[in-house]
């Protein structure tokens, strides 16, 4: 799909299809739940009208696809740049998951892979400017007076790269999330999904997707730079989210 108009047209056709099969006692998901509310028309000022359904579903698509896919591409690029780390992830997958289908409950027994995914999110910092906010009243923050209506750009990088929180912030270093015994350690400064009331509502879903997609790919493939690529050097693209612009890579089927 090329642009927002294409997405909206696609979604409008979807809504018509959902309406045809709508059963208020057996709702299939968000769109059905919304359409049921819309049909009730209890309140003339209801938020449950088509424009809001379009915005909600479009936001979920836009905020929920590019973010996770870019993070996976960063993770695979780091695996190529750091083959020793890739080897350790492979070893852990082979030991804990083996040939089975990766499941989310494998994660608690895979501290190294979990640390690699966390470090990917910290290091890649894919939403560097967060989302802009505006103060709703006058306030004083750390000695600075911010009048009502001040435009705020909360830089996540200042936390994700804070050297008081991360030992080697300028390096890709999964040990940031491991203790001396190799157990996974949570860090309060790990905030790629931002913090507070308006932090990313897709955080739990995203974390599940990242674990399942990354382990599934790593279970089947080894990642290398494509033949002829001497220095596999990944550059960040410029945009609202930072995607990796990587040289060509090869995925080679692993043999067991
Ligand atoms: C690696 C994956 C993801 C990252 C790093 C990420 C990061 C973020 C960040 C930093 C924000 C701004 C929060 C703030 O303003 O304080 C945000 C907002 C949002 N995210 Fe995510 N996100 C990810 C995946 C997802 C997924 C999978 C979904 C849904 C399916 C999603 C839905 C949203 C929505 C709807 C908002 C706007 C929330 C609001 O304004 O209240 N995100 N995300």
UniProtKB/TrEMBL annotation:
Top-rank lineage group of the source organism: Eukaryota
Classification via PROSITE patterns: CYTOCHROME_P450
A Pfam family matched in the record: p450
Keywords annotated in UniProt: Heme, Iron, Metal-binding, Monooxygenase, Oxidoreductase
UniProt-listed InterPro entries: Cyt_P450, Cyt_P450_CS, Cyt_P450_E_grp-I, Cyt_P450_sf, Cytochrome_P450_fam2
UniProt cofactor(s): heme
Record bears the keyword Metal-binding: yes
Coiled coil residues, start to end: none
Heme is among the record's keywords: yes
Xref: PANTHER family: CYTOCHROME P450, CYTOCHROME P450 508A4-RELATED
Family note: Belongs to the cytochrome P450 family.
Name the record gives this protein: Cytochrome P450
Organism: Staurois parvus
């Amino acid at each position: 799909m090329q642009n927002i108009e294409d997405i909206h047209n696609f979604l409008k056709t979807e809504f018509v299809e959902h309406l045809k099969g709508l059963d208020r006692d057996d709702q299939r998901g968000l769109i059905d739940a919304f359409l049921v509310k819309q049909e009730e028309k209890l309140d003339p000022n209801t938020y449950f009208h088509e424009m809001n359904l379009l915005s909600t579903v479009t936001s979920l698509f836009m905020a929920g696809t590019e973010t996770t896919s870019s993070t996976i591409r960063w993770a695979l690029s780091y695996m190529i740049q750091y083959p020793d780390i890739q080897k350790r992830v492979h070893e852990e997958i082979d030991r804990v998951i083996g040939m089975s289908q990766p499941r989310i409950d494998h994660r608690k027994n895979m501290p190294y892979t979990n640390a690699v995914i966390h470090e990917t999110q910290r290091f890649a910092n894919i939403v560097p400017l967060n989302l802009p906010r505006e103060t709703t009243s006058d306030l004083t923050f750390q000695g600075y007076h911010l009048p009502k209506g001040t435009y705020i750009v909360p830089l996540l990088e200042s936390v994700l790269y804070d050297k008081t929180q991360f030992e080697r912030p300028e390096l890709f270093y999964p040990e940031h999330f491991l203790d001396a015994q190799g157990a996974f350690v949570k860090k309060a400064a790990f905030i790629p999904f931002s913090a507070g009331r308006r932090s990313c509502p897709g955080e739990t879903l995203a974390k599940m997707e990242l674990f399942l997609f990354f382990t599934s790919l790593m279970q089947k493939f080894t990642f290398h730079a494509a033949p002829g690529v001497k220095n596999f050097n990944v550059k960040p693209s410029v945009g609202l989210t930072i995607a990796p612009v990587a040289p060509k890579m090869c995925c080679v089927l692993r043999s067991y």
